[in-house]
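Severity: low
Component: inverse-folding endpoint
Summary: output formatting inconsistent between runs
Steps to reproduce: submit the following structure tokens with default settings.
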């Protein structure tokens, strides 16, 4: 497959990296995997994102799925601080990826679909093929 542009010698193709979701667990995994794939020097951000993700998945399977009242209590007691950090990590990862995009490209939500995140041409809003 022909690359549309390169980051650190790693070819990237315009298209989706993660679609159909705004859940921080899904976006953090996809975005941190993409940063790791292009081997950028953001180990602290990727490490923090993966630690948050491991905690999120552990809590979800251990507590929240079995006892939804725990989620409500945590939301009330923690004032959503932990979940807010998840959303901040999504933004940090997206910004880091977008910063790496070559001229004429961006990383983020597709202009025509706000739940389709990936690498896009800046003029893709007029391109019906993407």
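Observed output (run 2 of 3):
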């Amino acid at each position: 497959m022909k690359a549309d542009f390169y980051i650190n010698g790693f070819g990237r193709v315009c298209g989706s990296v993660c679609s159909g979701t705004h859940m921080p667990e899904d976006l953090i995994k996809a975005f941190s995997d993409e940063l790791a794939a292009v081997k950028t020097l953001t180990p602290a951000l990727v490490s923090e994102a993966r630690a948050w993700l491991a905690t999120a998945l552990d809590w979800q399977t251990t507590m929240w799925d079995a006892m939804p009242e725990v989620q409500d209590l945590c939301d009330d007691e923690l004032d959503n601080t932990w979940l807010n950090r998840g959303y901040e990590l999504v933004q940090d990862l997206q910004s880091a990826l977008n910063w790496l995009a070559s001229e004429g490209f961006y990383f983020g939500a597709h202009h025509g679909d706000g739940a389709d995140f990936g690498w896009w041409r800046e003029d893709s809003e007029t391109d019906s093929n993407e």
